[in-house]
Amino acid sequence: MLSKGLILRDRYRIMGKIGKGGSSSVYLAEDISIGKKWAIKYLPGDDDTVWLAQNEINMMIRLDHESFPRIVDAWQEGEGYFIVSDYIEGMTLDRIIKKKQVGRRMLTGWWIKIAEAIAYLHDLKPSILYLDLKLENIMLKKDGSLKLIDFGIAGRIADRGSLYGTPGYAAPEQYYNRGEMLDERTDVYAFGMLMYAMYTGRRPDSDRDRQEILIKCDRRIPVKIRRIILNCIGEEKNSRYADMHALLTDLTALKGRKDNSSRLKLTAAAAVLCMGIFGAAAVKYVLAEPRDDIAKQLLTEANRHIRDGEYTEEGIRIICSYIESGCLDEDTCQRFTYEVARNYFSIRRNYREALRYFEMLDKERYPEAGYYIRLCTLQVSFEEDNEKYIKCIKEFCDYNRGLGYEEARYKNDIMLANLYDAVSASDEESRYDEIAFLEEGLADLRYAKEAGLYEDEKGYYEGEYLRRLCFLCEEAGNNEGVIRYGEQALLILDEGKVEVRADITDRLNKIRENR
Fold first, then answer.
1. How many helices and strands, by DSSP H and E, does the chain display?
2. Helix H segments across 75-183?
3. I need a labelling partner for 257 at 20 to 30 A (CA). Which of 37, 141, 417, 466 fits?
4. pLDDT above 70: residue 372
């Protein structure tokens, strides 16, 4: 790290660090001879860094275009490389898109400017491919002009695919290193994903097929813009625009059309799931594709990410992306919103996210959502009031017992057990209340199954009751209960729940060894 005040080559005084990307760092520096500010990129030495530094220098010295910074100096010192270029005072587009809605007319103007800049690179002899087009690499200056930065992985058309590139933006032939020759259409692909990110405020999904489906069914994206994006992101290069000039023709035509539609306001929020998730309500649209196919695709994708009968974080992220896209019909959207809310509440215990999704539910269809909202609110407010918390749980239990023999009742029982867990550690009475509560629910479920009133597929809920009773009995020091419920759980639980079965087996073995 370069310290503030350090003077390089008797000319550049380091003023502070202004950016970091990969192994490189960018510093603001002052030219002490003329008082001008420059950006200095420092790359510590290793084989990859040497290549990146030399590549960036070789590319930038050839540029003479308003959309690219100039390189004015470069040298190697010790094992590190220094590259001095124009200091761009402004903000990267990813930060801008997160902070505010940008109108379609302005976005179209930006797309044209960016496409013209990339076309300029492609028209050079020999041509240059940018290869890392993304929001973070485009800066908006205070005067409203755009600058493309970071030429670390730019290359010639003759280059073969490499592992460099940003997931979601990089074309398949580049990111997956398929050994194909890269050409203008590799940048065309990234440009399509950039358009999607700029319009929706969402980072492109690293799964190309899933991303294409989301774009096709996202009716918040106007048809003409969606068509341009899809023409950019074909799986094969020959299914994309032939070059940036062909793309520019459609973008220019787009600018000339009057936009009579209103863009749904989006506010991008920082995320996980890898991937940002937005707080916009799902909107009902008439889709060109059958809704059942979309729901089927969602289930196929999400079900690849199930462990011990519950969706993993990646599975939940996939479901969330479909919910927020607006491509699901209202019924499907509500069902999956409930699944996400339940997962955040019961499995991840992320009560803030659970609250957000429970609030999206139709309260007439999911009246229990009101109880969950109250409980989540108590959790996120850090209000340490066990009496209020237990009172709400008991009211919820009374409501739940009135549901009869249906899945919602048993699903709520499992989540209510989690609520008891939150207070039972400090309240022994609550632990015994939870045991009694689960024993009653288990007895009712078994009666319903025997009477043919409810079919517990693969014994999922019965297994959950037994598992929790086994663990609670251990906490209460009731070894007989641990053995009784543990052995029954192993007979019921699906073989796929490897970790859960192993946990129960370990507990049983410990008790038997100590006898």
1. 19, 13
2. 93-99, 104-123, 172-175
3. 141
4. yes
User: Cβ contacts of residue 278 below 8 Å, gap of 6+?
Assistant: 201, 202, 266, 267, 268, 269, 324
Tell me which of 1.10.3880.10, 3.40.30.120, 2.60.120.1440, 1.10.510.10 is the CATH number of domain 90-256. 1.10.510.10
% of the chain surpassing 90 pLDDT: 25
Please name the helix (run of DSSP H) or strand (run of DSSP E) that holds residue 81, with its range, or none: strand 80-86
> What are the residues whose beta carbons fall under 8 Å from the beta carbon of 53, sequence distance 6 or more?
43, 74, 76, 81, 83
For residue 496, what are its two tokens? 């796929």
Domain 384-513, CATH among 1.25.40.10, 1.10.287.130, 1.10.10.10, 3.40.50.20: 1.25.40.10
The pLDDT assigned to 135 comes to: 94
- Whether the link from the prior residue into 126 is cis, omega within 30° of 0, is yes
Class of residue 408 by CB neighbours under 10 A (exposed 0-12, middle 13-18, buried 19+): middle
Tokens of 510: 């410990």
What distance in Å separates the CA atoms of residue 271 and residue 273, rounded to the nearest whole number? 6
Domain ranges of the chain: 7-86, 90-256, 384-513
Q: What is the DSSP letter of 457?
A: G
Q: Hunting for tokens 């066990």 — which residue is that?
A: 386
CATH number of 7-86: 3.30.200.20
**How many whole angstroms from its chain centre is CA 196?**
15
- The answer to whether the CB of 113 falls within 8 A of the CB of 67 is yes
Q: Provide CB contacts within 8 A for 437, sequence distance 6+.
A: 397, 413, 416, 417, 420
End-to-end CA distance of the chain: 61
- The DSSP letter of residue 304 is G
**Would the pLDDT of 172 be above 70?**
yes
Check pLDDT > 70 for residue 422. no
Q: Which two tokens stand for residue 20?
A: 């970091």
* Residue 272 pLDDT: 24
Q: How confident is the model at residue 133 (pLDDT cuts 50, 70, 90)?
A: very high
Q: What is the pLDDT of residues 293-329, one digit of tens each?
A: 666 666 676 667 666 556 777 778 888 877 877 777 7
